[in-house]
Amino acid sequence: MSDVADHGRLMDDVYRYQRLFYDITRKYYLLGRDHLIENMTVHPGDRVLEVACGTGRNLAAIRKRHPRALLFGLDISDQMLISARRKLDGAARLAQADACSFDPEALFGEAQFDHIVFSYSLSMIPDWQGALDEGIRHLAPGGTLHVVDFGDQARLPGWFKGALRAWLARFHVTPRDTLGAALQEMAGGAAALSGQDLYRGYAVYGRLTRQPEG
């Protein structure tokens, strides 16, 4: 079985039952998700894709703030998509796909998106740099990549950082300590980056905007 299929099966096993109470429990430690959503400038008709959309919680929040946006979501876990379909009830187009290699035209009939969201997903994707590269590849000129995930917790007490990471590892979650640096490297001359550490480095938030053509 391929690595992608293995990871999809692992995520299904992890979330088969967790998805039933995921949103209730995760609000206490997936900090910064609402910060990301509140800082999105979405115009009517904008295409918004969330990569690894999970239960659809973020897409539902985006829909509430921007009811005229076109919403899309993909996830490698069919179990998570069961919850997302119920939550969104047709308000978003959803598909099962790998974050590191997907064909949006085949999945959604869209080649590019005005906004692509990664919310606490990169810490669960083995090839997280590949997922970011894939996201940029499908971003429309002038579009924005929005990212929030665990930071390096460097300014938090050592005991807290150690306990948090040991607990996260039980759920196959690995904070990406170089996420901020990776976003800076991706910006280069083709995109503009803004962002910040949140909650003393507990989380990192970034917006990478692709330069318009011409």
UniProtKB/TrEMBL annotation:
What's a Pfam family this protein contains?
Methyltransf_25
Which GO biological process categories is it annotated with? methylation
> Where do the TM regions start and end?
none
Q: Which Gene3D superfamilies match?
A: Vaccinia Virus protein VP39
Superkingdom of the organism of origin: Bacteria
An annotated Gene Ontology molecular function:
methyltransferase activity
Write the record's keywords in alphabetical order, separated by commas: Methyltransferase, Transferase
Methyltransferase domain location is 48-143
Q: Please name the PANTHER family in this protein's record.
A: TRANS-ACONITATE 2-METHYLTRANSFERASE-RELATED
Task: List the protein's name.
Answer: S-adenosylmethionine-diacylgycerolhomoserine-N-methyltransferase
